[in-house]
């Protein structure tokens, strides 16, 4: 199951197996074994590397989407994750993000 999710996210991002393995710093043969469910128990370190390159939360690879609650599904929305990742990569700190949220709450109350 993990292998299928890795493959799904890899192809959705347009990476070949070689590209993902190189960017994540993992062996292509190991990645192939994971995707083909020959190796079914990858290490946390491996999953962290793969998830980082795919720009997703590692839990997306671990948990079957059918098991998500409605709240978790909303939390794992690809667009939200992409926006958060973009904010992080652009240098927005957690405190700055919290400040923005507080400002936005205040602004909404003013209407």
From TrEMBL:
GO cellular component, one term: cytosol
Gene3D superfamilies: lambda repressor-like DNA-binding domains (1.10.260.40)
Domain of life: Bacteria
Family matches, as SUPFAM superfamilies: lambda repressor-like DNA-binding domains, SinR repressor dimerisation domain-like
Annotated Sin domain residues: 67-105
Pfam families per UniProt: HTH_3, SinI
Keyword DNA-binding assigned: yes
Protein name per the record: Helix-turn-helix domain-containing protein
């Amino acid at each position: 199951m993990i292998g299928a999710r890795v493959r799904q996210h890899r192809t959705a991002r347009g990476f070949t197996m070689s590209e993902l393995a190189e960017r994540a710093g993992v062996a292509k043969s190991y990645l192939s074994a994971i995707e083909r469910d020959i190796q079914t128990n990858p290490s946390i370190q491996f999953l962290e590397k793969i998830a980082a390159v795919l720009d997703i939360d590692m839990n997306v690879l671990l948990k079957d989407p059918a098991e998500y609650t409605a709240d978790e599904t909303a939390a794992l929305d690809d667009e939200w994750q992409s926006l958060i990742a973009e904010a992080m990569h652009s240098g927005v700190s957690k405190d700055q993000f919290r400040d923005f949220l507080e400002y936005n709450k205040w602004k909404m109350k003013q209407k």
